[in-house]
Amino acid sequence: MTAICPGSFDPITSGHVDIIKRASLLFERVVVGVAKHPPKKPLFSAKDRLRFVEAVVSGQKGLRAEIFDSLLIEFAQKHDARIIVRGLRAISDFEHEFQMAQLNRKLSLQIETVFIMASPEYGYLSSSAVKEIAEFGGCIENMVPSVVEEALRKMYSK
Ligand code: ADP
Question: Is the CB of 49 under 6 A from ligand 1?
Fold first, then answer.
């Protein structure tokens, strides 16, 4: 069975990595979908965001990443996937995720959204928090893959 892990991944954090790896234990194939045009203007280009995700998934069996620029449902259909996996941190994630899952269900009854609860050590972690810490020179070690840590350091040392 194929599952899609969609997101803006701007940039990918250790919390995302945790969800992707746990999804890969549940499903034979997991395609990480990097949204080309997320609602909030991203800091990193889609190409960079994909490169960071690829650094994490490359060589991992059943895992791959791809940019998508369409309805999520269409991206899932393209991969013959019937599962969308999303991570849930706090209650604050719930409202948005609930709405998205219901909208996607309205678009296709064949595709189910399933949720994986954040691991306690990553429940506080978000891409925006990481960017804010990096902008002010704080330490983001272990919060993001090393390729992202380096890219953020480079970006904010300019
Ligand atoms: P989007 O912009 O579509 O919300 P994100 O890249 O911010 O995409 O997140 C993708 C998915 O990963 C979402 O389901 C989000 O709730 C989840 N997620 C983000 N950070 C974490 C974390 N620290 N732990 C678990 N899940 C997370």
Answer: no
